[in-house]
Amino acid sequence: MRIGILGGGQLGRMLALAGYPLGMTTTVLDPAADPCAAQVCPHIRGEFDDFAALFDLVKTSDFVTYEFENVPVETVRWLADRVPVFPPPRALEVSQDRVTEKKFLESLGIPLPPFQPVETRADFDAALQTIGLPAVLKTRRFGYDGKGQAVLRTPAEAEAAWLKLNGRPLILEGFVTFDRELSLIAVRDRGRAIACYPLIENQHIDGILHRSIAPAQACGEELNERAAEYASRILQELDYVGVLTVEWFQDGPRLIANEIAPRVHNSGHWTIEVAAASQFENHLRAGCGLSLGRTAATGVAAMFNFIGTLPNASDVLTEPHAHFHAYGKADRPGRKVGHVTLRCESAEELQAMLPDWDRRFSRS
Amino acid sequence: MRIGILGGGQLGRMLALAGYPLGMTTTVLDPAADPCAAQVCPHIRGEFDDFAALFDLVKTSDFVTYEFENVPVETVRWLADRVPVFPPPRALEVSQDRVTEKKFLESLGIPLPPFQPVETRADFDAALQTIGLPAVLKTRRFGYDGKGQAVLRTPAEAEAAWLKLNGRPLILEGFVTFDRELSLIAVRDRGRAIACYPLIENQHIDGILHRSIAPAQACGEELNERAAEYASRILQELDYVGVLTVEWFQDGPRLIANEIAPRVHNSGHWTIEVAAASQFENHLRAGCGLSLGRTAATGVAAMFNFIGTLPNASDVLTEPHAHFHAYGKADRPGRKVGHVTLRCESAEELQAMLPDWDRRFSRS
Fold it and tell me: DSSP string spanning A299-363?
């Protein structure tokens, strides 16, 4: 089976590596000269609207998927007319625009912060009036890793955020007070079976994922079941195939949706070592019409991103519980260049290790 | 870190795939036009005594290893003068000749069947006299998967075996009565630390590994410790770095050495899913001066080889405990084209699945 991937970053790279044992060969399309996935599989260099390059991808692929959501929807629709594409283009469309996304989730009865689209200064003032402070002003499109957003606590901060962000379509969201951020990684196969990994607890630093703990501790069956049920509504409504990630705010017993990502996700990297089938393997299995692999955690895991600088493998692997992942990228401030997953048998064992690892990898 | 591998078969392929997350890139040298490892990493085409090709490998490698033991020792010594090579050339030399190997193991006090080198008809008759029937006549060199050997139960079989095999240096070994065949996969790092995976139980059909069960059931601590202690003697004597496999006959409480392989081994494929660090990862970690990863089994595993024909992934992966591995090879009778590992939590669960899987994959 030949898989084409739009995007050749670390997610594409890990998809390609997961594909080989399944007998799948991968080609990535990416505008960069040397995206890191190109170290492990063939690469077609081209912009995501370069139809000659896209046609080359069609010719070398039985299925096409994408590893990030800022691919033009027109591209994915064009591809879907020529070759099976998963997840479906509509999932991409929904996730690309925060207002479309929120309206979609709202239509499914999934809890959300209050929100209002903002185009003009008058919209902004009206939205501030309705939603009140604190609030968060975000661009509707092309945000990632905390870019393109600002928290407004005071009228002065609101003014500053307006000056910085206006001119693009915006959304004002109510500020959610939450205990912690969670994510759920769900997958649906071509036979419509759905499987979910356990809820994951995520910590961000400067808007970039710093650490994930899985399974999220002190969650209970009830919260996991509710998150899975909400995810199922989304997957079914979109007639989705592949991995979908839903990011949540947890406020006591409440789950409030933050956003969805129609792809494998940074918070799911622990599944490589601590689930029978990783998110990467299950995404490919789903897309190619295979049955899903098991998603239960086989231990407890903490994943730390390496941001900016890749540590030496020798320094990380002195810890026998550590699994090291280099992405083959050059160091650069703010860039995700690798990660480490700690795999333990018990939550207590893992907890004891966290403070030290937090210290080591909390700087960019 | 750049790793060169002599040989581009499935073992080289799985080494290359294990290297990527560690930040290692691999090049294989292989005489074939399209060895299966070349689908996942660069390939230098050349015979193992083509020094121009070997020099190309030196230039692209920080370390060199080998994935099978029928590489000329001169080649590996020549490489070792130019680039670090692991395991050490002497390990290769010892394992290539059954008489050298047995004398080496004997010198370390490791239990063996009686054996005698055979060059001439007179040697053969004398050896038959000393060792008696039943016995096994084998070529000293280049045997694998049961090729180049014959079991002698009667004088007529002895005669037939002599006619078939004579003309090459041979060895006559006493026929060992055994309960089962086991293997131990051990690894030693550059800091001289040694780790062993648990003993594995192996079943062969027509001389080719059919099935491995790990950990081997009903072994007990004592047998595992003894096998590990014997392996340590070998590793230390050879000042070994990397993975070493020792094949054993078990006869009640006795372990009798069959042969050693200075490399990752077919019976260790289960370690990909059912140990924290696979044999492939630990081989690379050892060779590159990293600490070893954990070798304990994290569940119970059965590995079945796909011989001759690769089944459809879709037929295998309906079983949620199955992990599918395709090697990217064309089907051919007697060829290892892939494997499946079943991973269970309990031995009982695994035992219940075995008869069906034995039936499915016991034909070539």
Answer: SEEEEEEEESSPPPHHHHTTSTTEEEEE------TT-EEEEEEEEESSHHHHHHHHHHHHHHH--
Task: Read off the pLDDT of residues B218-276 as tens digits, 9 standing for 90 and up.
Answer: 988 999 999 999 999 999 999 999 999 999 999 999 999 999 999 999 999 999 999 99
Read off the pLDDT of each residue in A111-136 and give the average, rounded to a whole number.
Answer: 96
Give the chain A residue whose CA is nearest to the CA of B17. A17
Looking at residue A69, what is its pLDDT? 87
CB–CB contact B40 A40 (8 Å): yes
Instruction: Please give the CATH topology (third level) of the domain spanning A114-174.
Output: Dna Ligase; domain 1 (3.30.1490)
Quick one: average pLDDT of B7-21?
98
CB-count exposure of residue A37 (10 Å: 0-12, 13-18, 19+):
buried
Q: Is the pLDDT of residue B171 over 90?
A: yes
What are the residues whose beta carbons fall under 8 Å from the beta carbon of A24, sequence distance 6 or more?
Answer: A1, A2, A3, A284, A288
How confident is the model over A190-217, as a mean pLDDT? Answer: 96
Domain A180-361 belongs in CATH node 2.60.40.10? no
pLDDT of residue B5 exceeding 70: yes
Rounded distance between C-alpha atoms, residue B160 and residue A200, angstroms = 66
Q: Exposed, middle or buried: residue B317 (CB in 10 Å: 0-12, 13-18, 19+)?
A: buried
Mean pLDDT (chain B) is 95
Q: What is the DSSP letter of B34?
A: S
Dig out the tokens for B9 from the structure: 């078969």
Give the torsion sign (CA, A205, A208, A211, A214). Answer: positive
Q: Rounded to whole angstroms, what are the CA distances from A292 to A287, A288, A299, B321?
A: 10, 10, 20, 11
Handedness of CA B145, B151, B156, B161 (dihedral sign): positive
Q: What is the pLDDT of residue A145?
A: 65
Best to test chain A binding among B11, B271, B290, B349 (most A CBs inside 10 Å): B290
Distance CA B271, CA A344 (A): 17
Are the CB atoms for B283 and B242 separated by under 8 Å?
A: yes
Each domain of chain B, given as residue ranges in start order, spans: 2-85, 114-174, 180-361
Residue B39 contacts A, CB cutoff 8 Å: yes
* Interchain CB contact of A324 with B (< 8 Å): yes
The rounded distance, in Å, linking the Cα atoms of B283 and B279 is 6
pLDDT of residue B269: 98
Alpha carbons B18 and B5: distance in angstroms, whole number: 13
Percent of chain B whose pLDDT exceeds 90: 93
Average pLDDT on A71-78 reads: 96
CATH class of A2-85: alpha beta
